[in-house]
Structure formats: structure tokens, C-alpha cells
Automatic annotation (TrEMBL):
Keyword terms of this UniProt record: Oxidoreductase
Similarity field: Belongs to the short-chain dehydrogenases/reductases (SDR) family.
UniProt entry tagged with the keyword Heme: no
Gene3D superfamilies from the UniProt entry: NAD(P)-binding Rossmann-like Domain
Name this protein carries in UniProt: Ketoreductase domain-containing protein
Keyword Heme: no
Domain of life assignment: Eukaryota
PANTHER family: ENOYL-(ACYL CARRIER) REDUCTASE, NADPH-DEPENDENT ALDEHYDE REDUCTASE-LIKE PROTEIN, CHLOROPLASTIC-RELATED
GO molecular function terms noted in the UniProt entry: oxidoreductase activity, acting on CH-OH group of donors
Domain Ketoreductase: 9-194
InterPro entries found in the cross-reference section: KR_dom (IPR057326), NAD(P)-bd_dom_sf (IPR036291), Sc_DH/Rdtase_CS (IPR020904), SDR_fam (IPR002347)
Organism: Pisum sativum
SMART domains referenced in this protein's UniProt entry, alphabetically: PKS_KR
Length: 255
């Protein structure tokens, strides 16, 4: 029986207790990966994801680790826990943790506190995760850094100033990182979803705003988490070795 494309490879997925991160974790597990499910606040949701992966398994294939991606020690703990539990180097990092301001303020009305929080989690968090991964992922093949950004970087919609700036910074870092990792066999790419039906997307939006967003899509709808995870899954496999330093926008033609 042929082995799965990610058979026994170790993957860390940040922000994977819900939304896009949850779907990515479940998909990577279906490809054979062993998972670190990261969360910051809701242990029950994280435990639920791990339980779904570990169901009918003789040995656990998923663990949960609480960590704040904007904290260097927290990010280090994700890798330490993975290596200790699975007795293996980490092969794949997917950084899906992210926040935005659900008030959708203009730049003129964005508070310094909100700006700092968004930059701290989205840009600093991605930097810390990528930095740790660049130093600790398996060398010589199979090493994958996949950072979630946003199609807002291309759409440049009002109300997303700080959020878009934070994700644009991640895209710039990723392109440079891919070149700096020359000789390691590790690839670095971004997946940039458009509007996706998650709790974060709907929070703070009126029905009118949601309807308008649906109408902007050539498909006339909001995307689903299951439409993002296969792209991440592909990038995590050996088949994607020649895809490096790229920003892949997955948005149904939204932009």
C-alpha cells in the first residue's frame, strides 16, 4: 500500500483551533502528517481538533500546545513540544494565526493600540515563526514554511489599513526568506486567501457588507475553508518543491 504524501512528517499549524487553520490541520493529517495544534485561548476547540485526528489511532498523531506567536518563547515551545513528542525534527510550519480590527476603521481612525496588536500578531508573529522554522526545520528536502497572508494585499480595500500592512510585510519577508534558505532544501511561500466564511470574517460585518462581498466574487459567494487547505497541502508535499518564494492568491477571482 502506497504511503501518504506527508507520511509521518511533523507539522506545526498555528491558530489551528478554528477557521482556516483548523481545516489546514485536518487536511495535513489526512495526508499522513503528525500535528501540533496551536491555540491561544480556547483549549476546548484545540482539543476537539486533536481528538478528531487521533480518533482510531493506536498512538497519538496530534497534540495541542498553547502559545502566543508574538512571543519568542511561545514559538520556541511549539518546536520543542513537536520534537519531544514525535522524536523528529519539524518538517512543516504553517502560520495561520492572525487578527484584525472588526471595527474596520480608516487609517485616520485606527487607534495606535489596534495597530500595534495587529502588527504584533500578524507581522511579528510570522517573523518569529519563520525565524524559528528557518533555524530548525529539517534540511535536505521536505522542509516547508507556509505563511498565511491575505488577498487584501492585492485588493487594498478601505478599512483594512493596518491588517493589509501587516500581511504585506509578511509577503515581503517570505520572498527574501526563500532566497536566504538557499542550499537547505526548505521552501518558503505564502497562501493569500480572499474572503472566507470563518468567524473572523463575519465578525463586525453587517449582512449588507457580506452580501456586497459575495457580489464582488465571480462565483457570487464567500469562499470556504476547505478551498484553502488543499493548496496548503500541495505546498507541503514533495510535489511542490519547485514552488518557492511565491504568493499564491486563493480567492475565486475576487482580485
Amino acid at each position: 500500500m502506497a504511503s501518504l504524501p506527508l507520511q509521518d512528517r511533523v507539522a506545526i499549524v498555528t491558530g489551528s483551533s478554528r477557521g482556516i487553520g483548523r481545516e489546514i490541520a485536518l487536511h495535513l493529517a489526512s495526508l499522513g502528517a503528525r500535528l501540533v495544534i496551536n491555540y491561544t485561548s480556547n483549549a476546548n476547540q484545540a482539543d476537539s481538533v486533536a481528538a478528531e485526528i487521533n480518533n482510531n489511532q493506536t498512538t497519538p498523531r496530534a497534540i495541542t500546545v498553547r502559545a502566543d506567536v508574538s512571543d519568542p518563547d511561545g514559538v520556541k515551545s511549539l518546536f520543542d513540544s513537536a520534537e519531544k513528542t514525535f522524536n523528529s525534527p519539524v518538517h512543516i510550519l504553517v502560520n495561520s494565526a492572525g487578527v484584525l480590527d472588526a471595527e474596520y476603521p480608516t487609517i485616520a481612525n485606527t487607534s495606535v493600540e489596534s495597530f500595534d496588536r495587529i502588527i504584533n500578531v500578524n507581522a511579528r508573529g510570522a517573523f518569529l515563526c519563520a525565524k524559528e522554522a528557518a533555524n530548525r526545520l529539517k534540511r535536505g528536502g521536505g522542509g516547508r514554511i507556509i505563511l498565511l497572508t491575505s488577498s487584501q494585499v492585492a485588493a487594498l480595500k478601505p478599512g483594512f489599513g493596518a491588517y493589509t500592512a501587516s500581511k504585506a510585510a509578511v509577503e515581503a519577508m517570505t520572498k527574501i526568506l526563500a532566497k536566504e534558505l538557499k542550499g537547505t532544501g526548505i521552501t518558503a511561500n505564502c497562501v493569500a486567501p480572499g474572503p472566507i466564511a470563518t468567524e473572523m470574517f463575519f465578525h463586525g460585518k453587517t449582512e449588507e457588507t457580506v452580501k456586497k462581498t459575495e457580489e464582488e466574487s465571480p462565483f457570487g459567494r464567500i469562499g470556504e475553508t476547505k478551498e484553502i487547505s488543499p493548496v496548503v497541502g500541495f505546498l507541503a508535499t514533495d510535489s511542490a518543491e519547485w514552488v518557492n518564494g511565491q504568493i499564491i492568491r486563493v480567492n475565486g477571482g475576487y482580485v
